[in-house]
Amino acid sequence: MVRNVASLVVAVTVALPVGATPARADTRVPEVIGGEIATPGEFPWAVRLSMGCGGALTAPRLVLTAGHCVGATGPNHRITVTAGSSDLKSKDAVTVKSVEVFRSPGFVTETEGKDWALVRLERALDLPTLDLPEDAGGDEGPFTVMGWGQTRESSLKQERRLHYAEVPIIADRECAKAYRQAGVELVRDESICAGRHGVDTCQGDSGGPMVRRDAAGTWRQVGIVSWGLGCARDGYFGVYTQVSKFRDEIRAAISKLG
Ligand code: ARG
Predict the structure, then answer these.
(1) The whole model's pTM is what?
(2) Ligand 1 center to residue 150 CA distance, Å?
(3) Which domains are present in the chain?
(4) Host H or E run for residue 81
(5) In what order do the strands lie in the sheet with 169-170?
(6) Is residue 174 helix, strand or coil?
(7) Using one digit for the tens of pLDDT, what is the confidence trace for 197-230?
(8) Which residue spans within 105-237 are E strands per DSSP?
(9) 171, 177, 212, 178: which is closest to 194 by C-alpha?
(10) Is any ligand 1 atom within 6 A of the Cβ of residue 54?
């Protein structure tokens, strides 16, 4: 979340060796997300969580989000989910409370991987759900990412309307190399890096889905917005939880929680 990553930015910036300062880190970052506003109904399973994260309706009563957005596994009535509209203030938007959270076993912090969680809602929503990947393949991109988070690294504002952008995959090797220089070790087999110049997710987008269409044209969730060093900085890409890696575990948790 905003706080977590803000502190990561500070920690990482302090840890930067001389000469490893991210190129143009302090220049203005253009609109993250590429400035596109989703049309109503375009991503009907995208939801907003009250702590300032995104998520996706993965079953009528379950939201898939990031582990770092929620607390520990157990009863939880503190989260309000806004669903049913890309415009949070639209009269079509519905709100529903959480009753329970299931966070990935072994989750510690977003940079250490396993960054996924399920939020169980007090009632089922009559909305389309977002499918998980059909198999372990399909993690090649390009992907679509979305959220109601900041459109600039320096902005403190969250958006009323859902923004989205298309981003290519970045090789783990390249992504890990940049982050290693900044003192963070990428958990390669649990992460997908994605982004392009000036286009990225940002604070407040965490937990939101990264998707692609399968051969039949159905959206599939391939990632979960997890972390990054600042937003859309040259050489540093967005890091997403690799959903295919956790697909069976998530599926099992979904059928248990219903
Ligand atoms: N952890 C952030 C959040 O809580 C998401 C950061 C994504 N950053 C990025 N550069 N892609 O909203």
Answers:
(1) 0.88
(2) 9
(3) 46-129+248-257 (2.40.10.10), 130-244 (2.40.10.10)
(4) strand 80-83
(5) 36-37, 163-167, 143-147, 209-213, 219-227, 238-242, 191-194, 169-170
(6) helix
(7) 999 999 999 999 999 999 899 999 999 999 999 9
(8) 117-121, 143-147, 163-167, 169-170, 191-194, 209-213, 219-227
(9) 171
(10) no
